[in-house]
Specification:
Number of strands of chain D: 0
Largest interface: A-B, 69 and 73 residues
Largest sheet of chain D: none
CATH class of the largest domain in chain B: Alpha Beta
Radius of gyration of chain D: 22 Å
Distance between the termini of chain D: 16 Å
Strand content of chain D: under 5%
Strand order of the largest sheet of chain B: 12-16-11-15-13-14
Number of helices of chain B: 16
Largest sheet of chain B: 6 strands, mixed
Radius of gyration of chain B: 27 Å
CATH topology of the largest domain in chain B: Dipeptide-binding Protein, domain 3
Oligomer: heterotetramer
Shape of chain B: globular
Chains: A mainly alpha (336), B alpha+beta (538), C alpha/beta (325), D mainly alpha (280)
Number of strands of chain B: 18
Helix content of chain D: over 70%
CATH architecture of the largest domain in chain B: Roll
Order of helices and strands of chain D: HHHHHHHHHHH
Number of domains of chain B: 3
Helix content of chain B: 25-40%
Shape of chain D: elongated
CATH superfamily of the largest domain in chain B: Dipeptide-binding Protein, Domain 3
Chain lengths: 336, 538, 325, 280
């Protein structure tokens, strides 16, 4: 088990390096000159030239790359050319917000999607299956920004149940930062009011973000369950008089979620990057809006760092997925 | 006997129904909404600058932030803007315009309680010059760090290299910072750049709360009880400012309408005005600001190197249609290359009007002179800016009528400014605003049409007229407004005759405000973001 | 005394995309207490559907059109799904599946799966909760030991794939017996095994019938197995019982042409490797007369005219063939 | 074949999907003929800005007074063009790579699959945004970015299928009778690997339309005055919630089209997957 995880981790390093090369080349091919943007609105050409030298932007690209990789190896992601803040700190502040949102969205997708997928499979080619399939496809097909605005109109404006935007009501003091996860920090500080408030702020963006994943999870759970239901052991278990609900929700489900778990891993990477629109509409202080901002201003350090980060999270989640697979299906673990 | 196969079905439907009931029950979990804001907290929708250091960043959001957290020697106040003493009581200038002396008020204090003296002002200016970032632009060429001195704890002296009239106009752009706080947080002689990017070291009416800051997301400030102006003129000031800028225009509107935002930023689209004014809770404040909207033409690229061609384009834009219908009338037609109400405008000069007949005539002339009017022309716009995109589309459909093929190309600010650094990469045409960094013709015509600024985006028409250069340079070196005004008038007449760009309007700033906001004072510099005058009802 | 299990005139149809398939068309069999009945037929003749019908787990689209299934004096066909699950499966009818690897849930420990069955169906001995579970574990260990599963205590903590094929089949036999059923249905339980293991399992089953006082319904396509194990025999062809009676007389003197043909194909007795010409007719379009007529060497005109009547052969078996009418 | 078609016709959602796809295709082909104001792709009519739906303008008008109904119809062609281009390019890159990696094995296969992993790890939106900068925001850069991030899916599918098939008995048999590699790959493996590819492509078409809309929303996709659905929704943000028709109809167009492709793809997959087919 441990060896398995270590081997997977070792495989990740060259992949990340490859990712870094690709991103680096790509970003450096972009014609916008960070020095111009950095210098600001009222800058003179001389000021711009000075900045170019100061940040080594006049050096050959391979040299810039070598310097960069050297620093990344020491876990130094550099400093944003614009905010002059260490990128590491910005990311450490923002990543938890995005992860919190992503986890909640995934949780909604999974807790709704898996049961719906099973129900759909049990009613294969009957009306509940049709209805569920159409609705779950609608989940993917609905543009997130449209859903987001509609949810805002309904829940924040019309009904007034949930806050419109942000991660915490502006009059509430923030809890001390321990983990960076707002809800967790609220709990650590024993701030129940802030905790409830933070959860309420999470609701709409998480719901919006969950829709795309929901459909995928319904789809794969349905296929997996259909597949499992064909297996001999299901007939055997029925013949042996297993209780129906336990048969479906325990004995069948555990066999049919392997494909779903793989999808969760793939979704996770997509959700982090795909949260951009949702974060923008709900003013969520996460990594998505940070990325867009970096791209719009041409902040190379940040673009590189974010790509590296998303790549790492993606790889980590996929290793985790493999581990979960192993736990779900003991046969895989033995094959290694 | 068919019952057996169906037993399953009944169960499954049961499961489904149970799910539906559970979903239906969710609203029952409703929790009463927390009150949006109390009467001591102002939730501001003003945008946040890239970082908090007023010596590194100088743009519109920074202006509105630093007016609250920092103080300046002089400050623009009122509408129309007047430059008034602030930390300084008064100033003197020598006849040659080279020696400037500012006298500070006594008893000034920073947020940490330490006294603010002339030495601190000197440090602040030297820091600006050493960092040489955006706000240094106006000073780098005319001021050496060693020529800023403090002969007395209350006197700051500047000795300029050359006479430069806009020097005084740019004084309010420099914030005075607390060297003791900065030096304590300096790393490798970086002038505390990293520290001040996310913290405060000022003396302003409000104090930055570093724990309440996340770049471009949120910022909290709390009141500075011991601000040098005191609070007698505003007995019930805002205790806390919560900057919560919105990213989406729809969210901004909704937040204002549900009371969770006390003011929007100042870029409210005209089409949202009616919706806000119809609400019970908010209204739209209209203010004329000095911010001109211009379509640039690259005068080095054919056909724009041809005067008749440029005039043709200038006559083909539907100025009033754009202003009346698309901007809902919330802008004033400004045919001049700078704000109409600024001094130095030649009121007798006639601008270009929307007249496709004239445009056609000029087009014929241009073609006769060999200008390639039929080639596809590219107009670059900032994709994220709805207004410029609409303007471009309007232009496109009008030009199509006279047989000119205009292509609208979406782009982003950093790409555009990079491209504008060289004449051959500068697009055929592009669109931008020119905001007020300091209230002086230099901010517009001076930097836009003096050929010495070629290579900066502001001068991206690559217009070159030696007579204009001479006039602008002469005006720049004089101190007295009476002497400078005629020079600018003359220069502008010549520029307008050459039609290097298409000047469209001067902006009217639209800002949504909650009705509980009272006591707002507007000034075009800072866009009414100064909070110390504001009181919240209720 | 009435038989333990008696199936009479069972007709089952399945709705498919192509139309309605008559999978079982008048099947009958009787199983006396304490005896072993072999059900024999080629694949596709309806053996699995018969088993499924007895256990009340027909595939989707299937319908019992006619017939009765009497078990211990009750007609199982009037039982609801719940009643079957509560009162019949495992507790009164045990089941041994064909392929023990596919029949065991691969991702659960064997113990968890066997205990799940006992949890719901083991006779109530008054114990509850943990105590009941402990007794079940004890009973299982005892059973596994009887089944000669090595290391029965730890066996419960292992996963199905960690056993050999023979061991897995022993586990499943234990599972079938765990709740004390009167009847055990075995669906070709030895097909997936090698010959030696097959023989061991058959011996074990033979012993268990007497030992546990059960009756065994043994489905197979292999006459060799029938000869080795069964007391009675029921031959099914194309959804119909064609010959039924005691094993030995039938093996000695098979009456129905199909039985004869099947026996002729068996390696032990085969005279040629010709097999039976043709194939089992599609249940969608069954022949009008005798189902076997198209493949029958002795077919006459009357065979295709209508359903042959039930008759009795010289050895006392019931035969569905005009020859014995 | 007929049996498969019949099964498809019995799958209601899949038929619904097929119907939608056909209608959208028809609209895309006949667009300018169907639109009541075909000139509104580019024209502007300031006098009738932001009019609600009426008999003249079924879906209302937009911020430049253009008929939204016409623009929704005219937008179908662009949406399909994007989707088809992206998926074709992705298939052209992905399928051959998958075949090579699956059939050849060794270091080449290893390299291809590692590169595939790397590309899969690049956040799609980041790449799209970066390319939009690189080539200035336009439909072309959006399409390129989407193609460049979508091909690994095909590579993975084809790789898996090829591996499965090339170790199968019948390929061994072909090798035994001396069939050449090219012949085996193109005549035997490719046709067999095709059905999962087609399924993926169908779903990919819907997916691409959606992501292109998101890019348009972020100002990184189609440029004005293209009657692009995503772009139209992006433009409408300022006018919500008052001009509800502005976002709603293009939104519905995206919804219905994407749903059509997805439902059809799901239906096709049910047919293509032998395990699921068995259950019928």
């Amino acid at each position: 088990m441990l060896r398995f995880v270590l081997r997977r981790c070792a495989l990740v390093v060259p992949s990340l390096l490859g990712l870094l090369v690709v991103t680096f080349l790509l970003i450096h091919a972009v014609p916008s000159d960070p020095a111009v943007a950095m210098a600001g609105d009222a800058a003179t050409p001389e000021q711009i030239e000075r900045l170019r030298q100061q940040y080594g932007l006049d050096r050959p690209i391979w040299e810039q790359f070598a310097v960069y990789v050297g620093r990344v190896a020491q876990l130094d992601l550099g400093e944003s050319a614009f905010s002059h803040r260490p990128v590491m700190i910005d990311i450490a502040q923002r990543l938890p917000a995005t992860l919190e949102l992503t986890f909640c969205a995934l949780a909604i997708s999974v807790f709704l999607g898996v049961p719906l997928g099973v129900v759909s499979a049990l009613n294969h080619n009957a009306w509940p299956d049709y209805v569920l399939r159409i609705f779950s496809v609608m989940g993917i097909a609905l543009a997130a920004f449209w859903v987001a605005i509609m949810l805002q109109l309904l829940f924040s404006m019309q009904l007034g149940w949930l806050p419109l935007r942000g991660d915490l009501t502006s009059t509430l003091p923030r809890p001390d930062r321990v983990t960076g996860f707002l809800t967790v920090d609220c709990l650590i500080a024993g701030r129940w009011d802030a905790f409830a408030d933070a959860l309420r702020h999470l609701a709409l963006p998480a719901l919006t973000l969950s829709l795309g994943g929901l459909a995928t999870i319904v789809r794969f759970t349905r296929a997996g369950t259909l597949d499992t239901l064909q297996q001999d052991f299901v007939f055997y278990e029925r013949a042996m008089g297993y209780r129906w609900l336990r048969l479906v929700w325990i004995f069948v489900l555990r066999n049919s979620v392997t494909a779903t778990v793989t999808q969760i891993g793939l979704l996770f990477g997509g959700l982090i990057a795909g949260g951009v629109v949702v974060e923008a509409i709900f003013d969520w202080p996460g990594i998505g809006s940070y990325t867009v901002q970096a791209i719009l201003t041409g902040d190379r350090q940040v673009m590189l760092a974010v790509t590296l980060l998303v790549g790492t999270v993606y790889a980590a989640v996929n290793i985790l997925v493999d581990v979960v697979h192993g736990l779900l299906d003991p046969r895989l673990m033995e094959r290694g | 006997m068919s019952g057996r196969g169906r037993v399953l079905r009944r169960r499954e439907i049961g499961t489904l129904a149970a799910g539906a009931v559970a979903v239906g029950a969710l609203p029952a979990l409703r929790i009463p909404s927390a009150s949006a804001a109390d009467a001591s907290t102002f939730v501001s929708g003003f945008g946040l600058p890239l970082n908090l250091d007023p010596h590194q960043v100088y743009d519109v959001p920074m202006q509105s932030m630093m007016l609250n957290a920092y103080d300046n020697l002089y400050r623009y106040q009122g509408d129309p803007p007047k430059i008034v003493p602030w930390l300084a009581e008064s100033h003197t200038v020598s006849d040659d315009g080279l020696d400037w002396e500012f006298k500070l008020r006594p008893g000034l204090k920073f947020h940490d309680g330490s006294p603010l003296t002339a030495e601190d002002v000197v440090y602040s200016f030297r820091r600006v010059l050493a960092l040489a970032l955006a706000p240094a632009g106006a000073f780098l060429k005319i001021l050496k760090p060693e020529n800023v001195t403090a002969p007395d704890p209350l006197v700051v002296r500047f000795k300029l290299e050359t006479s430069y009239a806009p020097f005084f106009a740019a004084i309010p752009s420099i914030s005075i910072v607390n060297p003791r706080v900065i030096k304590a947080n300096e790393k490798d002689g970086d002038w505390g750049k990293t520290f001040l990017a996310s913290d405060g070291a000022g003396s302003g009416a409000y104090r930055i709360v570093p724990a309440g800051y996340r770049p471009l997301e949120y910022l909290d400030m709390e009141i500075n009880e011991s601000h040098f102006l005191g609070w007698k003129d505003n007995p019930k000031p805002v205790r806390k400012i919560a900057y919560r800028p919105t990213k989406e225009s729809s969210t901004r509107l909704l937040a204002l309408l549900n009371g969770s935002l006390d003011c929007t930023d100042t870029n409210l689209p005209a089409d949202q005005v009616a919706q806000i004014n119809e609400s019970k809770i908010a209204y739209v404040q209209k203010d004329v600001v000095m911010r001109t909207f211009v379509i640039r033409m690259n005068n080095t690229k054919p056909p724009f190197d041809n005067l008749n061609a440029r005039r043709c384009f200038a006559h083909a834009f539907n100025y009033m249609g754009f202003i009346t219908d698309i901007l809902g009338g919330y802008a004033t037609r400004d045919p001049y290359p700078m704000p109409e109400d600024l001094w130095g405008i030649p009121k007798d000069a006639k601008g270009y009007d929307y007249d496709l007949k004239k445009a056609k005539e000029y087009m014929a002339k241009a073609i006769a002179e060999g200008a390639p009017m039929k080639r596809p022309i590219e107009l670059h716009v900032q994709s994220e800016n709805e207004q410029s995109v609409q303007g471009a589309q309007l232009f496109q459909s009008d030009l199509a009528q006279i047989g000119i093929n205009l292509k609208v190309v979406g782009s982003i600010w950093s790409t555009l400014t990079t491209a504008a650094a060289k004449p051959d990469t500068t697009p055929d045409m592009w669109v931008h605003w020119v905001s007020t960094y300091f209230v002086d013709p230099e901010n517009w015509v001076g930097q836009m049409y003096d050929s010495q600024f070629h290579g900066t985006w502001k001068a991206s028409a690559y217009y070159k007229n030696p007579e204009v250069d001479t006039l602008l340079r002469k005006a720049r070196a004089l101190v007295k407004q009476e002497e400078r005004a005629p020079l600018y008038q003359e220069a502008i007449r010549k520029i307008m005759a050459d039609s290097p760009d298409i000047w469209i309007y001067n902006s009217m700033q639209l800002q949504g405000l909650n009705k509980r906001v009272k006591g707002r004072r507007f000034c075009t510099v800072g866009q009414g973001a100064e909070m110390r005058w504001i009181t919240l009802d209720g | 005394m009435t038989p333990l299990l008696s199936v009479r005139g069972l007709k089952v149809s399945i709705r498919t995309d192509e139309g309605i398939a008559q999978v079982l068309d008048d099947v009958g069999l009787e199983l006396e207490r304490g005896r072993i009945l072999g059900v024999v037929g080629e694949s596709g003749c309806g053996k699995s559907t018969l088993i499924r019908a007895i256990m009340g787990i027909l595939p989707r689209g299937a319908r019992v059109e006619k017939g009765e299934i009497w078990f211990e004096g009750e007609n199982l066909l009037v039982f609801s799904e719940d009643e079957l699950n509560r009162d019949v499966r495992s507790s009164r009818i045990g089941f041994i599946p064909q392929d023990p690897l596919l029949a065991l849930n691969p991702v659960f420990k064997v113990g968890a799966q066997l205990l799940e069955v006992m949890r719901w169906h083991a006779p109530d001995d008054g114990a509850r909760g943990a105590e009941r579970r402990k007794r079940h574990v004890g009973r299982l260990v005892e059973l596994l030991r009887r089944m000669q599963v090595p290391d029965p205590e730890t066996a419960l903590e292992r996963y199905p794939h960690q056993f050999s094929g023979g061991q897995r089949q022993r586990l499943l036999i234990a599972a079938a017996l765990a709740c004390g059923p009167r009847l055990v249905i075995a669906d070709e339980p030895t097909t997936a095994l090698d010959v030696t293991t097959q023989h061991q399992i058959l011996l074990l089953l033979r012993e268990l019938v007497g030992e546990f006082g059960i009756s065994l319904l043994f489905v197979t396509h292999d006459f060799g197995v029938v000869a080795e194990l069964c007391d009675d025999l029921c031959v099914i062809y194309a959804g119909q019982t064609v010959e039924a009676g005691a094993v030995l007389p039938i093996l000695d003197a098979p009456a129905h042409p199909y039985t004869r043909a099947l026996l002729a194909c068996h390696p032990d007795r085969a005279t040629s490797f010709a097999g039976i010409p043709g194939s089992v007719p599609s249940p969608l379009t069954p022949p009008t007369g005798c189902r076997f007529a198209p493949r029958c060497g002795d077919a006459r005109a009357v065979c295709s005219a209508g359903q042959p009547p039930q008759g009795r052969s010289g050895s006392g078996a019931e035969v569905r063939c005009v020859q014995y009418a | 074949m007929r049996a498969i078609l019949r099964k498809l016709t019995r799958d209601l959602p899949a038929m619904l999907g097929l119907g939608i796809v056909l209608v959208v295709l028809l609209i895309a082909i006949l667009g300018p003929l169907l639109a009541p104001y075909p000139g509104d792709a580019a024209a502007s009519h300031l006098a009738r800005r932001l009019k609600p739906p009426s008999a003249d303008f079924l879906f209302g008008t937009d911020n430049l007074g253009r008929d939204i109904f016409s623009r929704v119809i005219l937008g179908a062609r662009g949406a399909l063009a994007i989707a088809l281009t992206v998926v074709s390019v992705a298939m052209l890159i992905g399928v051959p790579l998958g075949l090579i990696a699956g059939f050849r094995g060794g270091w080449l296969s290893e390299t291809i699959m590692r590169v595939t992993d790397v590309v899969l790890a690049i956040p799609q939106l980041v790449l799209a945004l970066a390319l939009a900068q690189l080539m200035s925001p336009s439909l072309e850069s959006a399409m390129l970015a989407l193609s460049l991030t979508y091909w690994p899916f095909f590579t993975r599918i084809v790789y898996a299928e090829t591996r499965r098939l090339s170790s199968s008995l019948f390929v061994d048999a072909l090798r035994g009778v001396g069939a050449g590699s090219g012949r085996i790959v193109f005549l035997h493996i490719l046709p067999n690997a095709l059905s999962p590819v087609i399924v993926r492509a169908t779903i990919g078409l819907g997916f691409t339309i959606l992501v292109a809309a998101v890019l348009g929303f972020l100002g990184m996709g189609a440029t004005p005055p293209a009657p692009d659905w995503g772009l139209t929704i992006a433009e409408s943000r300022t006018y919500l919630p008052r001009a509800w028709w502005y976002a709603t109809f293009p939104g519905l167009a995206i919804l219905i089209t994407v749903m059509g492709f997805n439902l059809l793809g799901d239906g096709l997959r049910d047919l293509a997957d032998p395990r699921i087919r068995r259950s019928r």
